[in-house]
Amino acid sequence: MRLGIIVPSSNTTMEIEFRKMLPEEYSVHTARMRLREVTVESLYEMEKEAEYEALKLVDADVDVIGYGCTSGSLIRGPGHDEMLEKKLENLTGRPAVATSGAVLRALKALEIEKVAVVTPYIDEINKREEDFLEKNGFEVVDLKALRLKDNLKIGRVEVGTLISLVESLDYGKADGIFISCTNMPTIEAIDLLEKKTEKPVFSSNTATLWAMLRKTGSSLRLNAYGKLLKI
Fold it and tell me: 50-69: buried (b, 16+ CB within 10 Å) or exposed (e) per residue?
């Protein structure tokens, strides 16, 4: 199976994590939209390139297309994820998944109503993410952020920093924990965090991969990287 993902040009994490998680018979093909800083204005501009990049993935005969950006697929509010998916599907004739929509599906699949969230984002993005989740029916019990704007710096966040950020959350009343951003390295920490917190933990990348596989009808289940990929 061929998975196609459209990512910000400065994303150095998503394709690497997908390749680590997937068995050899699955391949990952990446297209890029120009973005260096994670701001509302930059994300709006980036989205303009999505359709052209999606057509490039069709040329590679991918089976499914993922719009691999959490903040970029939610900044316009509830329904932004659905709009992106429908637009890409109508254009390409391929099933499509937007990361923020994958997150909503993952929350439902894991039966998480109250969620604790960590992000690398600046406050203007955090506010839009919290609003997006709550208007889609989920309670954000706590949110902690690194407040990084430079996307290359987000891709260089160390595992220890991520673990400390999650441990700083007030997650006692949460049903689960969500680590936001497809450029935030997460997969090496998820199993450890699930053991430490005794909560389901998932990230933008595990949610997007899971949703893309399920949308194609794939029966692949993974025995690592969190509870979600076992469902």
Answer: beebbeebeeeebbbbbbbb
Residue whose entry in the numeric block shows the structure tokens 């994820």: 81
The average pLDDT across 164-177 equals 98
**What is the 8-class DSSP label of residue 37?**
B
Question: Which residue type does 214 have?
Answer: R
Encode pLDDT of 126-146 as tens digits. 999 999 999 999 999 999 999
Overall average pLDDT of the 166-195 stretch: 98
Dump strand ranges (E) for the chain: 2-8, 27-33, 64-67, 96-98, 114-119, 139-145, 176-179, 201-203
Q: Which amino acid is at 107?
A: L
Q: Catalytic site residues?
A: 69, 181
Please give the model's pTM, rounded to 2 decimal places.
0.98
Element (H, E) at 100: helix 99-109
CA quadruple 85, 40, 161, 168: dihedral, nearest 10: -90
Here the tokens at position 177 are 């924990």
